[in-house]
């Protein structure tokens, strides 16, 4: 395994951090009908009643309500990276506070399904997903119980 050299997003363009270091998701918003989309894209409004082919890049809410959740208790098959030994992890579907959009993401390490309850407030975080062969830790957006 390579020595950790730096952190980079696992997928470019899905999240960023503000000047205080707080993460936020990057989404798309239709300028015609106001519909939001995540992950971000530049065109094709998802609202079937809208004919707009343009989406503007916007910062999305950092907080939301836990809409649903599950716990993954099995390691993903290759080629997906998985720690050895595998540790179960929770996955949350969070309805963003202002947009009404539901965003799926892992829950930070140390929080499992027994710790979660539909309706609780969640906030955005980031966490390392894996370290690649060049020593870069690949980081993803994640959810944590709001303090």
Automatic annotation (TrEMBL):
InterPro entries: ChsH2_C, ChsH2_Znr, NA-bd_OB-fold, Thioester_dehydratase-like
SUPFAM superfamilies given in the database record: Nucleic acid-binding proteins
A Pfam short name: zf-ChsH2
Location of the ChsH2 rubredoxin-like zinc ribbon domain: 22-56
ChsH2 C-terminal OB-fold domain: residues covered: 58-125
Coiled coil (residue ranges): none
Protein name (record): Uncharacterized protein
Organism: Mycobacterium parmense
């Amino acid at each position: 395994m390579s020595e950790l050299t730096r952190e980079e997003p696992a997928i470019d363009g899905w999240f960023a951090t503000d000047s205080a270091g707080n993460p936020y998701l990057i989404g798309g918003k239709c300028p015609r009908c106001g519909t939001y989309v995540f992950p971000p894209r530049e065109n094709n409004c998802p609202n079937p009643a809208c004919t707009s082919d343009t989406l503007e890049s916007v910062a999305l809410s950092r907080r939301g309500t836990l809409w649903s959740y599950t716990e993954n208790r099995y390691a993903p098959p290759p080629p997906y990276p998985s720690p050895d030994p595998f540790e179960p992890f929770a996955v949350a579907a969070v309805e963003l506070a202002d947009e009404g959009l539901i965003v799926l993401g892992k829950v930070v390490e140390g929080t499992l399904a027994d710790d979660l309850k539909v309706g609780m407030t969640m906030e955005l975080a980031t966490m390392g997903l894996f370290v690649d062969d060049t020593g870069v830790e690949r980081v993803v957006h994640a959810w944590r119980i709001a303090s």
